[in-house]
Structure formats: C-alpha cells, structure tokens
Amino acid sequence: MKRKKIAFVIAALLIVISAGIYFYYGFLFKEARNIQSEMPDYHISATKLLEDYNADPKKADQLYLNKTIEITGIVTKETDSVLILENTVFCLFSQKVKYALINNKVTVKGKCIGYDELFQEVKIDQCTINK
Q: How many Å apart are CA 40 and CA 107, to the nearest integer?
C-alpha cells in the first residue's frame, strides 16, 4: 500500500514538472514571428488603410492590428530604415533601405502595430519591400 502511494506521488510530481517545463518553454518563450515568410492577411492601399482607421479605429484595430498586411503606395519620405507611404503609413524596417525609393510606388509587407493619433499615421513594423 505504501509503495502505491509513493509511486502515485512520484508520477504526479513528474506530470506537474513536465507541465511546468512545457508552459515555461512552449508558451512564455515562443519563437518570434517571421513576418517576411508569412502570407499577408490583407492587401490594401495606404490611403484606404488610413481611411479605415479614421472611420472607425476600433474596427480597424480588429481587422489589422498584429496582422501581416501588404500596403501599396507612393513613398513620400525616406530615411535609413523608415519609409512613409502617402504621408499616412509609417513603415519601419529592421535594416537600412538599400534603394532610393522616394516618389516611387512600392508594396511593403509588415505587421500592423496600430494607429498613432499624434502623427495621424498607421504604424507598420518588421517591414520588407515586395517586388
């Protein structure tokens, strides 16, 4: 009887420890998303994206926030690792943009991180240029 009780306690401890390890590594330390390899959830123009946010920010957040989207528009401003499309969409790249793209129409894929009311821009992170 005592052996069964000890075996049961050891089995229960192993299950609890295994569940803790799974939770710790499988849930808390998930691998970061690779936006570049993901298929976009939406294909949209820069002006339409801003119109959606201006019309109903909560609905636009439900549609676009933390989603992979492709945005098409004309580059109106360019710095080392930032492109601004149509003066409305702020696209942040992880590396310096290699080409001079000012006044050119481009398609950018990235993760929408929300609307900045102060600058009245939609922010896109982890961007890549699609050709």
A: 12
